[in-house]
Amino acid sequence: MVARVISIHLQEKSAGSRVAACHGVDELTNTRGSQNSGSEEIVRVRLPKKRNRELFGRADLMLGANHIRVRCEDGVTRMGRIKGKIKKRLWIREGDLLIVVPWSFQDEKCDIVYRYIRPQVDWLKKHNYLSQ
Questions:
Q1: What is the rounded distance in angstroms from the CA atom of residue 99 to the CA atom of residue 130?
Q2: What CA–CA distances, in Å, run from 79 to 52, 69, 108, 121?
Q3: Dihedral (Cα; 86, 89, 94, 95), 10-degree rounding
Q4: What's the Rg (C-alpha) of the chain?
Q5: Which DSSP string do the residues of 30-98 spell out, in sequence order?
Q6: Is the dihedral of CA 17, 22, 28, 32 positive or negative?
Q7: 84: CB partners within 8 A, 6+ apart
Q8: Out of 7, 37, 83, 105, which residue is the most buried by the measure of CB atoms under 10 Å away?
């Protein structure tokens, strides 16, 4: 179980009502909360490790039974299998950006090892890690 590292402080507003402001790191979303900004600041973004044969991929079609058709950055469409470690922790939808590892003995299949959230995808586009 992943623990959230957030401290909550109650502050008084001028009308006398209380507002909760979050400070700290939320490890489930990899974001840092702030009381003044409405947008999320990315703390860490995981990149594919080329030495482990990891690639960017986009979820194309949900096939059921923990299988997803994935369009990889090398142009190959593979059948992705959601690994057991993330099967019940993450919900993967069509259009999500993923990190996949192609199988060494069967190139048309791959394992899905990570899913990016929306602010992480924006950060990757801003820093030119994604061509789209």
A1: 12
A2: 19, 5, 6, 22
A3: -80
A4: 18
A5: TEEE-SS-SSPEE-------GGGT-EEEEEEEEEETTEEEEEETTS-EEEEEE-HHHHTT----TT-EE
A6: positive
A7: none
A8: 83
**Which of 129, 63, 72 lies closest to 101, judged by CA?**
72
Q: In Å, what is the CA distance from 23 to each residue of 4, 31, 69, 117, 131?
A: 11, 10, 38, 20, 34
Written as six digits, the tokens of 29 are 């979303």
Residue whose entry in the numeric block shows the structure tokens 């950060």? 123
Closest to 82 in 3D by CA, of 102, 65, 57: 65
Q: What is the pLDDT of residues 29-70, one digit of tens each?
A: 454 554 445 566 656 889 999 999 999 999 999 998 889 999
d(Cα 71, Cα 116) in Å, to the nearest integer?
Answer: 15
> Model confidence over 81-121: pLDDT tens digits?
998 888 888 889 999 999 999 999 998 999 999 999 999 99
Length of the chain: 132
